[in-house]
Amino acid sequence: MKKRIWFQGLCATMIAVLCFLTVGCQPSKVEDTAMENVGKAKVSMAVIKGPTGMGAAYLMEQNAQGLSKNDYTVTVAASPDEVAAKVINKEVDIAMLPTNLAAVLYQKTQGSIEVAAVNTLGVLYLLEKGDSIHSLADLSGKTVSMAGQGAVPQYVFQYLLDKNQVTDVTIQYMTEHAEVATALATGQADIVVLPEPNMSGVLMSDTSARVALDFNQLWAETVGEESSLPMGCVVVQKDFLENNKEAFELFLEEYENSVLFAKEEPEQTAQLIQKHEILPKAEIALKAFPNCNIVYMDGILMKETLEPFYELLWNANPKAVGETMPDESFYYEK
Questions:
Q1: Do 313 and 152 meet the contact criterion of CB atoms below 8 Å apart?
Q2: Exposed, middle or buried by CB within 10 Å (0-12, 13-18, 19+), for 331?
Q3: Are strands 232-237 and 113-120 parallel, antiparallel or unpaired?
Q4: What gap in Å lies between CA 165 and CA 146, rounded to an integer?
Q5: What string of pLDDT tens digits covers the 334 residues of the chain?
Q6: SS3 for 225?
Q7: If DSSP codes are grouped into helix, strand and coil, which group holds residue 288?
Q8: What CATH code would you report for 35-122+229-330?
Q9: Of 84, 151, 241, 267, which residue has the fewest beta carbons closer than 10 angstroms?
Q10: What CATH class does 124-223 carry?
Q11: What DSSP string runs through 30-90?
């Protein structure tokens, strides 16, 4: 009897030891990711909530799973100003920014950054309650509410009005896009200019609102069919680039693939956009995605897209591009 008890105790002890060893040999998910990131270049990156950051969602997920070619530390910022401060202070290697802000930062940092890709085209739309606006000419004598005074929305809208000889539009400026959306919803405004994803948020909650004009289409009709309206871009610190050219080239490859994935798999991308807090809800991301015009343009096409846009902004207000037009050193070449 004693032998039997002793044997049972020995078996229990052995089982416990084996279980301990088995569990001890199971690496955690964090350890798995750490092991997978051994030997990878460490890259810090900042994206902004909204369209400018949406194309990076798949790359962020790959990074979180330890499947990316670089080891990225990603900051998802609430505003362009937050990312701008990180660029100025060299707290990030790569950043995704509004195109005019990239030009401003190039001047502010004495040329210490380069623009490597355009990642977002026009995201501005004119909405109304009713069915009276079908062209810019239909805005004659009307009041339009919008945010973005002293920034790209104002300059682009005013340029389109001037070029189409619509001179009697009253523009009521508000502080935030959310304020404009609320004004339309509450009847304080009948015609507004909104970017995505604010536009989709309005359309999902108010069936009486409609998209009257697409600024991308207006831009092509006014400037030329081959012209694009570049709103977002990717910049890189020159110091980082000089010492990590291979890592940056890998980033561009991974980011381009991320943009392609977003276009091919919008539903999965919408879920990732919510997961990584680029937008609060996947439903809004999915609704907004077709109108966010997420792209990947680099090289000569990027430069040919940005230069005329910067010239337009400079003519409207030199401060919009940092007082001086960006020179050749601003544009990254592989």
A1: yes
A2: middle
A3: antiparallel
A4: 20
A5: 444 444 444 444 433 433 333 334 334 434 444 556 668 999 999 999 999 999 999 999 999 999 999 999 999 999 999 999 999 999 999 999 999 999 999 999 999 999 999 999 999 999 999 999 999 999 999 999 999 998 889 999 999 999 999 999 999 999 999 999 999 999 999 999 999 999 999 999 998 999 999 999 999 999 887 788 999 999 999 999 999 999 999 999 999 999 999 999 999 999 999 999 999 999 999 999 999 999 999 999 999 999 999 998 999 889 999 999 999 999 999 8
A6: coil
A7: helix
A8: 3.40.190.10
A9: 267
A10: alpha beta
A11: HHHHHHHTTTPPEEEEEEETTHHHHTTHHHHHHHHTT-SSSEEEEEEESSHHHHHHHHHTT
Whether the domain at 35-122+229-330 and the domain at 124-223 fall into the same CATH topology: yes
CA distance 271 to 184: 28
Q: Which residues of 316-329 are buried (b: 16+ CB within 10 A; e: fewer)?
A: beeebbbeeebeee
Q: Angle 80-88/99-108 helices, nearest 10 degrees?
A: 30
Tokens matching residue 70: 């670089």
d(CA 211, CA 249) in angstroms, rounded, equals 39
- CA 92, 312, 170, 135 dihedral sign is negative
C-alpha neighbours within 13 Å on the C-beta side of residue 108: 17
Helix, strand or coil, per DSSP, at residue 237? strand
Residue partners of 65: CB distance under 8 A and separation at least 6: 33
Q: Which of 125, 49, 102 is nearest to 232 (CA)?
A: 102
| Domain regions of the chain by residue span | 35-122+229-330, 124-223
Return phi, psi of residue 94, to 5°.
-130, 145
83 alpha-carbon distance from chain centroid: 12
